[in-house]
Amino acid sequence: MHQVLQTDGTLRAAAPLDVSTTRQLYAAMVAARTYDHKGTTLQKQGRLATYASFLGQEACQIGATGPLRPDDWLVATYRDAGAMWAQGYPWVNLFLGRTGDERGGAAPPDVNVLPPSITVGAHMIHAVGLAWAEQYRGTDRVALTMFGDGATSEGDFHEAMNFAGVFGVPVIFLCQNNHYAISTPRHRQTAAETLAAKADGYGMPGRQVDGNDLFAVYDAVAAAVADARAGGGPTFIEAVTYRLSPHTTADDPGRYRPAAEEEEWRARDPLDRVRRYLEANGEWSPAWQDELEQAAAADVDAAITAAEQLEPLGAAAVFDAVFAEPTPQLLRQRNRAATDE
Ligand SMILES: Cc1ncc(C[n+]2csc(CCOP(=O)(O)OP(=O)(O)O)c2C)c(N)n1
Question: Is the Cβ atom of 150 under 6 angstroms away from ligand 1?
């Protein structure tokens, strides 16, 4: 397993980023954690319908998007709000999506990030399609798709990986192996020794990296992106991490995993690791941390206010975002919903 930054903040290999970029990515990790914490809190207050936390997975979210250009594609899941935001998807859209408001799915036109996929695995096919279209048009854009260990058991995973391998599509598959698909542990997901080993069967390189190590994730994705841009085709990366939170706000992990295991992973917190590294290099202080947390909280709070101030949509709106040209049946249902309002 590829590791650069160890738990104590010391390096095992050369850092792939200069200090100023590391500080920027650390700030993004703090912002992502701030949003994540608010998401869980707002759901408990009844202001979001449900929330899927990525607590503990911030190195994957920020490390993976770090090497992307703004015009590359990101196609991710309900657990990837941090990555989506880092690639330009506004916090306000992410909040709206979690209230069931269709406007959450409408990213600004210059943001190449698809709305989060709730259907496990289905979005990987969309990522392959987008990247294949870019290849066909002769651009050097790539697509990054993010998914969990559970998604590797879906038929869609096979179809996406197979097609990408055969056609040399410029797509990066980033599997966040957070050890559980709701209550199903990794060892019940596949008998394969590693998830990265699956890449062999599709004729693409597979790498396993420490998913709590910002530098390792960044390094692996940067190499895969460079390869894809240069016509080298897809790469599969397994980032080994851990979901410190429940699956969603409707889950109780105490029913399927020992508290001691959570504690073990808490000690490998991805933010602490970068903070220790920066501190040892004289680049972190408690005052800067306060500054980052306050700025992030102000941003996130402004997004919550903006989302909650919007005039609520009526029930008929759910039909409007499905097809550009609705079928007669949908139109009838829409009209009925509008009359009932
Ligand atoms: C096709 C499909 N099957 C089942 C579900 C219900 N479901 C939602 S999340 C989830 C677990 C997914 O686990 P994993 O892919 O490891 O991602 P994680 O939630 O751990 O990030 C399941 C089974 C779904 N949303 N879509």
Answer: yes
Full-model pTM:
0.96
Active site residue 51: no
pLDDT tens, position by position, 61-87? 999 999 999 999 999 999 999 999 999
Residue 12 DSSP SS3: coil
Q: Where are the domains of the chain?
A: 19-310, 314-341
**How far is it, in rounded angstroms, from Cα 316 to Cα 311?**
14
> Is 243 among the residues known to form the active site?
yes
Q: For domain 19-310, say whether CATH 3.40.50.970 is its number.
A: yes
Cα 151 to ligand 1 centroid, rounded to whole Å = 7
E strands, 129-191, in order: 143-148, 171-177, 180-181, 184-185
Cα of 7 vs its chain's centroid, Å: 22
Cα distances (angstroms) measured from residue 6 to each of 213, 215, 261, 271:
7, 10, 19, 12
